[in-house]
Amino acid sequence: MTQHLTLLPLLVWLGYLALACWLWASRRQPFQAPPATRLKLEHSLLGLLLLLHAPLAFTPLIGLAPHFGAREALGMLTWIAVLIYWTAAFLIKLEGLQVILLPVATVSLGASLLMPAGHPTPWLSAPLMQAHFAIAMLAYGFFAVAAGLAVLMRLADRQLHQPGRGLLSQLPPLLALERLLFSTLALGFVLLTATLVTGTVFSEALFHKAVTFNHKTLFSLAAWLVFAALLWGRQTRGWRGRIAVNWTLTGFTLLLLAYIGSRFVLDALLQH
């Protein structure tokens, strides 16, 4: 049983890598839309990978000794971001996005497997903190998707000014990407707001002390302000294009620094 659990991360990573390579190879021909049967097969294979990936994401959080750090956070963030895409693809047309999503997921999951296991987190056994944790990870997932959409918007903008061939020619229209970006940002912002509120309330209820303004709190608040300003600018000033892309990537970077970046320093570099 232990051997199977040891091999599973490598098998899942190889699955992402194989699917990403197949997608890139099958999309090399410009202006040639893949048949519906191939799209359904790709979607089914991605769903199978998500099922295999799920134990990797949740096993560290259950049992008598839950643990969580940069390794587990990056692996779960990858799983949630791919799940959001996979689910949304049932509702709206997202053809072209998986060409970028799968390579990024492959790299991020591979990076997580190279990191040491995280630190013990006994507070995750409390239902209140489990709810806070779930909301926080969903917020991270939506903002990860938003960051991916921002990168795609930059590529689509380049495609408009410098028409090319192959993968770039198959990206969704820029306006469609922009609408999807702000819808994703709005959902992520609501979840991030709930994360900050529940973190404050539950900290006082469980630990009998107010939230301390450490690096994680400050980076999270800074990210919240960036996304709030961007959504405000969209509604009142009509911000779009490169402004939206730059602000989205800045906010997501701050979120990564808030937890994954700091835990990487403590777990991998300082081994604390």
TrEMBL record:
The keyword Transferase does not apply. The keyword Membrane applies. Pfam families: Cytochrom_C_asm (PF01578). InterPro entries: Cyt_c_assembly, YpjD/HemX. The chain crosses the membrane at residues 6-25, 45-68, 74-92, 99-119, 131-153, 174-197, 217-233, 245-266. It comes from the Bacteria. Keywords: Membrane, Transmembrane, Transmembrane helix. Residues 72-267 form the Cytochrome c assembly protein domain. This is Cytochrome c assembly protein domain-containing protein. It comes from Chitinimonas prasina.
